[in-house]
Amino acid sequence: MSDTTSNDVWTTDLSAQYDGASMVWVMVSGALVWIMIPGVGLLYSGMSRKKHALSLLWASLMAICLISFQWYFWGFSLTFGNAHSRFIGSLEFFCFMNVLGENNAAATLPDIVFAFFQGMFAMITGCIMLGGACERARLGPMMVFLFIWITIVYCPCAMWTWNVNGWLNHLGAYDFAGGGPVHQASGVGALAYALWCGKRRDPLTNKGIPKYRPHSVTSVVLGTVFLWFGWFGFNGGSSGDASLRGFYANVNTNLAAACGGLTWMFLDWFRCGHKWTTIGMCSGAVAGLVGITPAAGFVPVYFAVPIGCITALCCNYAVDLKDILHIDDGMDVFALHGVGGFIGSILTGLFAADYVAASDYGTVIDGGWLNHNYRQLGLQLAACCSIDLWSFVVTSIILNIMNKIPFLKIRLSEEEEDLGTDATQIGEFTYQESNVYIPEPVRSKAVPQKANKEDINSVPLPDQTSEEKQDDDTV
C-alpha cells in the first residue's frame, strides 16, 4: 500500500493502493455481520408471544433499511469524520461525499470499504436495542426514535472508541470489536426503552414482571445460528485487514461461544429442574459471543474459555435483575448485552496480551494485567461507565420528549396490546391461522346458499345463467 492515497480515478489505480486480500476479507466480513441482523429478529421473534412475533422480524429489517440511510446521510461522518473535538466527528463525509479510495478512517482500507463494514455495526446495534420495547411499542414512533438514537447515542460512543481523535481512543481503552459502542450502548439503551415503556400488560400479573414461554424455540435456535455464524465477520473483520490477528480473533470467538453455551446450560440444569434447556444453551452462546467481542483480538486463546464461562455465569444471574429493578426487559437485552459487554470489557483489561495484538504487524499495545499493566483495568472501567451513563441518560431524554408529543407516544394502547402488535400495527401475521379474523372486502354478488359460512371464500360464485345475463342487460 502506498503512503499517500487518492480518490482520482483518472490518474490512479485506486484498488492498487491497498492489499486486495484485506479488502475482500473485510467486505465479506461486513456481509456476515449483515446476516446477524435478521438473526436478532429471529431470536427475538421466537422469544416473544405469537401475536407479536412478526413485529420483531419487521423491526430487524426496518433497522437495516433505516440505519442504512442514516449511516449514508451523516452517521459515518459523525463517527469517523476528522473531528474538531474528541467527542463527535465532523460532517466532511456528509452523504458519503469523497468516500472512495482514500484512507481517512482506517489506514489499511479505502473509505468506501470501511464505511460499508462499519455501517453493519450501526445496524446490528440499533436492532439489538429495539428488543427493550418488545410487544408494546408503537412502530411509527419506533422508527423516529431509532434514527435519533443512532445519531446521538451510537455515533458518539463509536467515535470515542474507534476514531483516532476519540477521547476513549486517546485514553487507551481497549475495545476490539464493540463491547462498548455496540453491546453496552444497546443493552443499556434497551433497559431505558423498557423502563419508559412500562411493563407489558398482563391481567393475571398485578405485581412483578410478566414472564412468558418462547412461542418458537426453533426460531430462537435459527437466530442463534445466524448470530454465531455472522460473528466470525463481526470479530474477525475488526482487524481491518487479512492478518493473522483477525483469524486468531475468530478462534477466540468460537471457543468463547461454545464455553458460554455449556456454562449456561449446566447452570440452568441446577436452576431449572434438571432440564437441559435449549433456550439456556442459546442464551449462553450469545453471552459468550458478547463477552469475547471487546477481547477477541487482544487475549490469548486459552483465556477465551474463562471469558466465555464467566460472562455466561454473570449474564445468567443478571436475568434476575429485571425482577429487582421492576423493569420489563422481556428479551433480556440488558442482561445479555449490557452486562455481558461490561464483563467482557473488564476481562479484556485483565487478560490482554501485547503479543496477540502484534500478530497484526506494527500494532503495539501495553497489554493488561497479563503484561503487568495494572492501569488498564481502570481505563476499561472508565470506558464502560461513560458509555453506559451516556446511553441511559440520553435514551431516557429522547423517549420522554417523544412521549410529550401526541403522535409520537411510544406505547400501544391497552386494547392494541391485547390484540397484538402484528394485528394492530402491521395487519399481517407470522402464522396464518383459521381463527384469526381478517376483514374481507365487501362482495358485489350474493353468496350462494350452499356456501359454508365458516369459509365462504373457498366456494366460488356460480356462473350467471343466460336468463340472469339477460336481466342484467335489461337493467
Automatic annotation (TrEMBL):
GO CC annotation terms, alphabetical: plasma membrane
Domain spans labelled Ammonium transporter AmtB-like: 24-431
GO function terms (MF aspect): ammonium channel activity
Record's keyword terms, sorted: Ammonia transport, Membrane, Transmembrane, Transmembrane helix, Transport
Record-annotated membrane-spanning stretches: 20-44, 56-74, 112-131, 143-162, 174-196, 217-234, 246-267, 279-296, 302-321, 333-357, 377-402
Subcellular location: Cell membrane; Membrane
Region of interest: Disordered: 442-475
Name by which UniProt lists this protein: Ammonium transporter
Organism of derivation: Pichia kluyveri (Yeast)
